[in-house]
Amino acid sequence: DDARQVSQGWQAIIESGEPRDLRARLRRADGAYRRFVLRLSPVADAAGNLQKWCGIATDIDEICQPATAAPALEPDLRTLIDSIPALVSLMTPSGELEYVNIHNLQYMGTTLEALKGWTTSEIIHPDDKPRVIESWTHAVTTGEPFREEQRIRRADGAYHWFVANGIPMRDDAGRITRWWVITVDIDEQKRDKALIAQALVEISASEARFRSLINAVPGFVWSAAPDGYVSF
C-alpha cells in the first residue's frame, strides 16, 4: 500500500535535490510490517556537486500508536497541529506538557509520556536546559511570550539547534487556557553563523590566505573597522 507513494516521493526528492522525510511500512525478517520514517539527505563534494544520498530509517511503530490514542484533543485541532511542518507542543496553563504533534514524536523517536519529563531527561541539551527551564518558568509565571534557542536531541542521538516560540491562549476574561509552543529547526543557520564568525577571525589574521574560505560562505559577508569603515 505504501510502495507507490514512496517511489513517487523518492523521485521528487531526487529531482529537488533537497533533504526530505518519507513515511512507510517496512517488512521485518519475520514478515511483520512496522512503520518507519525515512530521512533522506544529499551528500555533496567540496564544490557542491551531489555525490550520493544518505538515508536513515527510524522505527516509529510504537510511537504512532500512542500518538493517535492518547491525547484527549478535538479531532480537528489534532489534524491541524499534525499538519504544521514544525514541532508543535500544547502546554497547560501551569506549564505542563499536554500534547505534541506527530513531528515531535518522529523527530525525537520517543513517546508523549517520555516527553512530559523533558525537564529531567536529555531531550534538551544539558548545557541549554537550565536556561530554557528558567525562561519557561518566567513565561508561565508572568504570562509573557516565551522564546529560546536550544539544542534538541534527534532520534539518532544527535543534537540540532531549534528556536522555540511560546504564545499563551486566553479566554474572554484574559485567563490563560493553554500555551502553544512552535519549535523550528535553525541548525543550518547556526552553522552558517559559526562559519562566518570563524572566517572573519581568520581573515583578520591573514586576509589573503583565508579569502577563499570567506567566499565559500553561502551569504553576503562583509567586515568593518570599529569606526564603521568597510574593509572587506
Task: Describe the model.
With 232 residues, the chain is an alpha+beta fold. The chain contains eight helices and eight strands, in the order αβββααββαααβββαα. 37% of the residues lie in helices and 30% in strands. Strands 5-4-8-7-6 form a five-stranded antiparallel sheet, sandwiched between helices. A three-stranded antiparallel sheet has the order 1-2-3, sandwiched between helices. The longest helix is centred in the last third of the chain and has 19 residues, at 187-205. The N and C termini lie far apart (57 Å).
Provide key terms for this protein.
five-stranded antiparallel sheet, three-stranded antiparallel sheet, alpha+beta, 232 residues
